[in-house]
Design goal:
seven-stranded antiparallel sheet; alpha/beta; about 35% helix; about 625 residues; 25 strands; eight-stranded antiparallel sheet; binds fructose -6-phosphate; globular; single chain
Length: about 625
């Protein structure tokens, strides 16, 4: 949830760290801080409540010299957002400074022991316990920082990515990871970068090492990267090439990343399908399916585990896999699955869906599925993240870094991968006729073009948005494949505009939510031409009869709905199962424009973070 960044080299560290924090701000933004060792070997720590810009303002006029430093942007778990609870945390003597992303589960016990030994704490965070423990072990055992961290972490239960500076040894940073991501960038001149993901590193080097759970690394200026495990045994770090362009990390002229990411979707889906669908647009090849064909084709059941928006993609995946492959599918919230003692068979295939690849609940669900002997398939966006490394195989969605906290292009990327997966398995299982398969593949390839048409509704939606800023509650209705789209539309609105919204299967409305409908209640209905169209028309009549205001998403050329709804938004026609890829677009735009009208920080909504690496 928090973002951490570090640098050691010949350059001034402060601007690199601030830029890095800005790139990681999507991970948390309630407070931020930086620690630098200057030329005189002073360890300067500056912290501020608020965003990275507040930290910068606070640092103005202060000594920000030095070419080694660490920095942190926080998403509070233990202790309110305040400069006191912000990271970096000093050790008792002021010799060490530490930043931490994760949660230390046994911090209370560790703290009690340290307090009993006379160590005073300055914050109420779980993180501070780490720096106090490391210093206590260093001093009482006469160890160097790198050794003391190994001893200390053997006592720690929980999730962490940490980095520590030692004022007495200004040419090194020690860092470590357990269940929270940490990437080390290898500079060309013996310099090192470290960060929660590759985005702050990409502009300086393309050579990175993704640390594994239990790894402790020593970044010493001019030296090779040293990595050991918790027992002190040397590990051989694998150097990888990253492929992130600077353009992907910038707003490219858009006011917000979210809007840029909404508009990028046609290009992203082309990237997602590139190399997987042939030029004749009649065959899908997924190497993960080729490599594990027997396992996947013979699946007795599929269980999809995911959270939030990825869970909504999973609901669409269920319908695709059940109808095309005739395999029963269950879709589970990863957070519930992990504690539910579910029945898992060895011939089950568990599909874990995650944009970030670091969601703690999804990782725990994967572990549970694997320990029960199931085969686990990952669908992920972030390259090299924990989920692709912990699943047996999988497919990257390849939509590029998603920086806006509210997921948009990752959702349509996930749905696209699920479409390709379902079609591939159906073809292998012979549950789809050859000509239908080809027709569907060809239509999938046309989706980016149709998305471009759907995006043309942007200006109309921008004009509509102010009407809905007054609303306290909104209802989103859809059926079949469009039911998860309704859920996703409601989630988008809630997240960024703070308007309460509910997604419902349209026919369920009469079993309760209809009581809420009055003239103050906007109802957004996905009413595209499909087999349930007439039923949805009846549902809209029910809303109208109670004075509700209806915005309907309809298929181009629909004249009936124009008479019924207060506003219609026209969408290009496509096959029913691909409709979510098109219908999501106006709902993303609607949430975006309503939030902008309400003056909200669309990319960094309150209380949220992009990567939920805690339970
Ligand atoms: C909503 C959103 C969240 C995430 C959820 C899972 O816009 O982004 O609901 O979908 O936290 O995250 P990932 O997909 O990274 O596992």
């Amino acid at each position: 949830m928090c973002g951490i960044v570090g640098y050691i080299g010949q350059r001034k560290a402060y601007p690199i760290l601030i830029k890095g924090l800005q790139r990681l701000e999507y991970r948390g933004y309630d407070s931020a801080g930086v620690a630098l060792i200057d030329e005189q070997q002073h360890l300067n720590v500056y912290k501020a409540k608020g965003k990275v810009a507040d930290l910068e303002a606070y640092c103005e006029g202060k000594d920000t010299g030095g070419s080694v430093g660490i920095a942190h942007t926080r998403w509070a778990t233990h202790g309110e957002p305040s400069s006191q609870n912000a990271h970096p945390h000093y050790s008792a003597s002021g010799r060490l400074a530490l930043i931490h992303n994760g949660i230390i589960e046994n911090y209370a016990t560790l703290k009690e022991n340290l307090v009993a030994r006379g160590i005073a704490f300055r914050s109420v965070t779980d993180s501070e316990v780490l720096v106090q423990l490391v210093e206590y072990i260093m001093v009482s055992n006469g160890l160097e920082l790198y050794e003391a961290v190994q001893v200390a972490l053997r006592q720690v239960i929980g999730a962490y990515a940490i980095a520590i500076l030692d004022r007495e040894h200004p040419s090194q940073i020690v860092c470590a990871r357990q269940s929270s991501p940490l990437v080390v960038g290898l500079g060309a001149e013996g310099d090192f970068y470290l960060a929660s993901d590759a985005s702050p590193i990409a502009e300086y080097t393309d050579r990175v090492v993704y640390l594994n759970d239990g790894d402790i690394a020593l970044l010493r200026l001019g030296d090779e990267l040293h990595v050991v495990n918790l027992s002190g045994e040397a590990r051989h770090p694998k150097v990888k090439q990253i492929d992130v362009t600077l353009g992907q990390l910038e707003k490219g002229g858009y006011p917000y990343f979210m809007l840029k990411e909404i508009f990028e979707q046609p290009a992203c889906l082309r990237d997602c399908m590139r190399g997987r669908i042939n030029v004749d647009a009649d065959r899908i090849t997924l190497s993960a399916v080729i490599d594990y064909r027997d396992k996947l084709v013979a699946a007795r059941r599929v269980i999809i585990v995911a959270c939030g928006t990825s869970w909504h993609a999973g609901l669409i995946g269920k319908q695709l896999i059940e109808s095309l492959c005739r395999i029963p599918v269950e879709v589970e919230y990863a957070s519930e699955f992990r504690y539910r003692d579910p029945v898992i068979y060895p011939d089950d295939v568990v599909i874990a869906i995650s944009q970030s690849g670091e969601t703690a609940d999804t990782l725990a669900a994967i572990e549970q599925a694997r320990s029960a002997g199931a085969f686990v398939f990952g669908i992920c966006n972030a390259i090299g993240a924990s989920i692709p490394r912990q699943t047996q195989t999988g497919v990257y969605i390849h939509v590029g870094p998603e920086i806006g906290v509210a997921s948009t292009k990752a959702f349509t990327g996930q749905v696209t991968v699920l479409c390709m997966l379902a079609l591939t398995l159906a073809n292998e299982r012979r549950t789809i006729a050859g000509d239908v398969y080809k027709e569907m593949v060809a239509e999938l390839v046309r989706i980016p073009e149709k998305m471009e048409l759907a995006l043309k509704a942007n200006e109309q939606i921008e004009r509509l948005a102010p009407i809905f800023t007054y609303a306290h509650n909104c209802l989103y209705l859809g059926r079949g494949y469009n039911y998860p789209v309704a859920l996703e539309g409601a989630l988008k609105l809630k997240e960024i505009s703070y308007i309460h919204a509910e997604g419902y299967p349209a026919a369920e409305m009469k079993h309760g939510p209809i009581a809420l409908i009055d003239s103050e209640m906007p109802v957004f209905v996905i009413a595209t031409r499909d087999k349930l169209y007439d039923k949805v028309v009846s549902n809209i009549e029910e809303v109208r009869a109670r004075g509700g205001r209806v915005v309907a998403l309809v298929t181009e050329g629909d004249t009936q709905m124009a008479k019924l709804a207060d506003h219609i938004i026209c969408l290009p026609d496509t096959m029913e199962c691909f409709q979510p890829l098109i219908a999501s677009i106006p709902l993303q735009l609607l949430a975006y424009h309503i939030a902008v009208c309400k003056g909200k920080d669309v990319d960094r909504p309150r209380n949220l973070a992009k990567s939920v690496t805690v339970e």
